[in-house]
Amino acid sequence: MALSSPWPDRLLPGAPWPLGATWDGLGINFAVFSAHATRLQLCLFDPSGRREIMRYDLPECTDEVWHGYLPNARAGLIYGFRAHGPYEPQAGHRFNPHKLLLDPYARRLHGEWRNADALYGYRINSPRADLSFDRRDSAPGVMKAVVADESFTWGDDRPPAVPWSETVIYEAHVRGLSMLRHDLRPNQRGTFAALGDPVFIDHLRRLGVTAIELLPIHAFVQDRSLLQKGLRNYWGYNSIGFFAPEPRYLSDGSADELRIAVRRLHAAGIELILDVVYNHTAEGSELGPTLSFRGLDNASYYRLNPDNPRHCINDTGTGNTLNLSTPRVLQMVMDSLRHWVTSFHVDGFRFDLGVTLGREAHGFDQGSGFFDAIRQDPVLQKVKLISEPWDIGPGGYQLGNHPPGFAEWNDRFRDGVRRYWRGDPGQRADFAARLAGSADLFDRRWRRPWASINYVASHDGFTLADTVAYAERHNEANGEDNNDGHGENYSANWGVEGATHDPSILDIRQRLQRALLATLFVAQGTPMLLGGDEFGRTQAGNNNAYCQDNDVSWIDWSPLERADGNALMAFVARLAALRQSQPILRAPMFLHGQEMPADGVSDIAWFDASGELVSSDSWNDAEERRLVLRLARQNGDDAVTLLTAFFNSSAEDHSFHLPPPHWPARIILDSAHPDAPERDLAETKEGIEILVASRSVVVVLARRDRSVGQS
Questions:
Q1: What digits encode the pLDDT tens for the residues 491-510?
Q2: Of the listed 171, 297, 388, 460, which one is catalytic?
Q3: Which of 106, 315, 515, 616 has CA 20 to 30 A from 127's CA?
Q4: How many CB atoms lie within 10 A of CB 61?
Q5: Residue 186, in any domain of the structure
Q6: Is 476 a catalytic residue?
Q7: What domain range includes position 619?
Q8: 317-329: b or e for each residue (b if 16 or more CB lie within 10 Å)?
Q9: Single residue among 310, 345, 361 that ends a domain in this structure
Q10: 485 and 519, same domain (yes or no)
Q11: Inter-residue contact 322 to 312 (CB < 8 Å)
Q12: SS3 of residue 108 by DSSP
C-alpha cells in the first residue's frame, strides 16, 4: 500500500501549484488545469494498477487549477483523473467521466495502453460518430500516472557547454541504436542503459561527436491504424506524456537509468539533445481516443476550428494541434522543458514542427508567446534550441525566419548538396550558398552561421548509403502502397537499384558518400550526422521508416567488422578532427568577402578550376560542375591561414589551379584517397596544379606570416 494510515474521507484543499502530483514527505499535493470542467476527481489504484480503490473530488479550484492534498501518501502511488463537464462536441467540449485521464504532468507511468474501443469518448461505429457518448470505463486499458520521487545524486556533473561553433551532432533513436548490439544483455538493448554504455560512448568520441540528438523519448502511444496492420510507431512522434520517459526505454523501470546515461555522456564531454513533440498529442483528431488532454479540457488544450469547434485544426498532419496560445498549455510546455533540464540535465532540444509552436491566431509569428517565453527563461536560454522550421499549415515553411537563439534544420542544404553531387545542372550558385552557411537564409538579427543545422541525411528520408544506391523510395513494408515518404529524394542508383557487387558502381557510391560527408564538414554551420551513416547503414530504400520497429530501422553494427565500414568511419573521424583543428571552418560570423585578412585576400572567395574568380557568366553556366572555395582567416599570432576546397562533381578527373597567392601549401584531405597522408604541394612555372578526381573533394591548407612579403 502507498498509504501508511487509513484512507481519509476527503482530500484537504492543498495548493494550485506546482501542477501535477508533488510528494513533500508528508503527503501528496495534486493540481490539474481545466478551465471548463465542473468537477475533477482523483482516482487511486492498487499496486497492480488494475483495481480502483478510492475516488476523491478535488475540493478546490483556483485560477482554473483544481487541487487537493492527500496526507500520509507516499511516492509510488498510482493514480488518474476523471473530469466532469459538458459533452458538447459542437461547442468543443468532450468531457466524459467514464474515461480515466492521464495527468499531463505525470513523471512516471504504469501499465500499457490497450487498443480498445473503450478508450474513445464516443461509441465507435455509431451512426452519430463523435456526437455519440460512450459509458464504458476506460481504466483497464490505459496507462496510469505514478507519483515519482526524483531525488538523484548528480555529484559533480556539469553540462559540457560545448560552444555552438564546435558542435557536431549525431542523430539517433535510443531503441535503434542498440537492438542489434549483441555484446549487450538482451534487457539492455534498446534502452538508456545502452546509451550510457562505454562502448557506444567511445564510438562517439572516436567520431568526434559532441552531441547526440535522440528521436522522441517522451512517453508515447501506439497508433491504432498501425497496430491493425501489424506495425508499430517506431519514431515516437505521438507523445502523451511530456514529463515521463517512454517506459520501454527503461531496462529496469527506473528513470535514473537515463540520468546515469547523461552523467556518463557528460563525463565524456558529450551533450544530450532531445527531439521533442509539443505541436500535437497522441489523441489525434476529434475521432481519436480520450486519454488525457481531450478529456480534461478539449477546448483549452487544442486549437479548434472557430467556425465549427467540433473539429480540430490540423496544422501538424496528425489530427490535432496543441493550443500554445492558452497560457496554461504554454506553461505546461515550459514546465516540461525546464523539467528535462533540471531533473535530467538535458543540454538542448530539437522542436518537431517548430513552426506550429510559433503560431498565433494570425499565423506564424517570431514574437509568439512560445518564442518570447523560451527566450527570456533563465534556465532554457542556456541550452541549445533547434527548430524543425515547417509544418503543413498556411505559411508553414519558415526556414530562416526563427528568432535569434534558435538553430534550424536546413533542408535546403540537404537538397542542394545532394543535387550538386548527383550532377544536376545549374547547381553551383546554390551549392556555394549552402557552403557559406546559408547566409541568404540566416544572416539577419545578428544570427550566427551555427544557426544552420546542415545535414545530408536524417531519420526522415534516405540514409546516406541509400541516397547513392536508390533512385526511388521502397516503402512497401509500410502498408501504404509505397505512397508515403518523400517522392523526390535527389538520389541516384548509378546503374543498379539497391545492392550490387559491380565494382564500378560501388566505387562511384563510395566516392559520393565521402564527397557528401566532406561537404558537410567543410561547410559553415553546424554539421549533423545520421547515426550509422559513418559506416554505410542502409534501410533498403525505405525513406519513411517511422513504423519499422525492426531491423529495417535498427542500426546494424556489423559493417564495422568489414574493411569498407571501418574505412568510412575513419574518414568521418578525420573530417571531424579537421573541422575541430581549423577554426577557419567555424567562422563566428557570416562571411561576405568584405573583410581582408591579407592584401588582396578576402575572407571568402569563389574560383573556377582555372584559379580565376567566378564571373557572372560562369555562375550562369548550367553545365559547369567544378567549384573552388577559399576561406581566409587572420590568426591571433599575426599569421594568415588560407583553406581552399576544390569540388568536382563531374564524372571525369580534372586539374585545378590553386588561386593566388601561392604560399607554401599542402593537401590535408583528398576524399578520393581517404587514407592518403597530408602532402606538400610544389609550385611550377604554371603555378600550383591539383588533380581532383571525379566526384571528389580536395582540401588545401596554406599559412603565411603577415610580416613576410606576399607573392
A1: 999 999 999 999 999 999 99
A2: 388
A3: 315
A4: 18
A5: yes
A6: no
A7: 588-705
A8: ebbbbbbbebebb
A9: 310
A10: yes
A11: no
A12: strand
